[in-house]
Amino acid sequence: MGFRFLINFYPIQKVSRVSSSYSYKILNTPTAALLALNSELYGNSDDNPNFKVHKRWHIGHSHRQHDHHQDLSSGKEGEKIFRLGLAADVGLATGKALTGYLSGSTAIIADAAHSVSDVVLSGVALLSFRAASAPKDKEHPYGHGKFETLGALGISTMLLATAGGIAWHALDILAERWSVAPEIVNQSSAHDHVHGHHHGGHHHGIDMEHPVLALNMTIVSIAVKEGLYWITKRAGERTGSGLMKANAWHHRADAISSVVALIGVGGSFLGVRFLDPLAGLFVSGMILKAGLETGYQSILELVDAAVPSQQLEPFKKTILGVEGVKGYSRLRGRKAGSSLYVDVDIEVDPFSSVSAAHDVEHNVRRQLQQSHPEIAEVFIHIEPSTSEIPSSLTNHQGNMSADHQISTVELEQTDVEDTVSNIISYYFSEKMVVERITRHVLQGQIFLQIEVSMPPDMLIR
Known about the structure:
GO terms for molecular function: monoatomic cation transmembrane transporter activity. Keywords: Membrane, Transmembrane, Transmembrane helix, Transport, Vacuole. It is a single chain. The protein is α/β, with parallel strands linked by helices and 461 residues long. The chain folds into 3 domains: 96 residues, no CATH class; 228 residues, Cation efflux protein transmembrane domain (Alpha-lytic protease prodomain-like), CATH 1.20.1510; 80 residues, Cation efflux protein, cytoplasmic domain (Alpha-Beta Plaits). Strands 1-8-7 form a 3-stranded mixed sheet, with helices on one face. A hairpin with a 2-residue loop joins strand 7 and strand 8. Helix 1 packs antiparallel against helix 12, helix 2 runs antiparallel to helix 5 and helix 5 packs antiparallel against helix 6. The N terminus is likely disordered.
């Protein structure tokens, strides 16, 4: 390990504390002290660039708390959407129950019971969203976003159960109709369609005492559920909420189930008796796919899986656009509900002060959260940028003789600051005073930045 020296000179004018430095470029080593420092560690060099003074600037900065106004606004908007879905399910359950009672349709009554389960599920989704929107506390310092993920996982389970139920029912009807198909063909000339459309024990129940009323209720249910699907889906895409996306697909599953009932009735009127179960199988496949995708994404979030790399691309441009950032590495992200947590290592000027590096870190965090509202928190680690170190400094150690390398090793075992102070005091006595020695460790080498004060009439060449 070797040493490099970056030396700042100050005239003695009531120097009590060095708060800023003015840069001088020393073309030739001006004193025997500097030659002694260089000779003792590395040997003489007429064009040694190690005495090029590093200019340091301190930029004032202020600390701002992350503006959560947009987060609160999106949270209120999301809660309104969940409330809308809950109110719609309550209205549909009530309307279907009343329609089923007036029309005598057992299918509508069964659908009303299903809507009651939708009310329960919408209530669970609303409670999950509320829990996830709660602010951080002592027990949950990273927030409550995982409650939203758990809610999405619960809805995905319901979607899988719905898909399985539709598929089982469709296969059961398909098997029954396939078994009775020859008898129906033989008896078709002797029997007309019976009012009520009984097929293999399966009753559609729409053409009862008030078929128009039952049919209209089914159409209203389809329209309401499809509308809720699009409203919830767009909000989920805008906020990145997996719970909203899952709930949107739950609304669509209900709408499609009602569509299948209409298709089945239409097929019965047209004489296409297999249209109902085939449509049911197709729909169950769609719902199954949505349930698997939602459940898979929820599990990935629960185990803190990394977000896709393409989702991090916009963050890279934002980071590199911040003044003072020389590079970055280890950019990672993980989701907790609709919130995104980002980790990144940024590279800054290796000779900058701690406060200046902190200022760059603060600006990176602020710019990321302002440009990408889905980011809830940014965890930043600061690294010195090796690209900012002149190659003449890092490569000089390899050109040292063996004697100088041994001297360097011996010097490392002593107090470096005392050694430097003793050398300068020996050659300058009271004329030059060491104010501060700042050590930098870069690529396995120690760089010393020495700040000294001297009489104003002392010449520097």
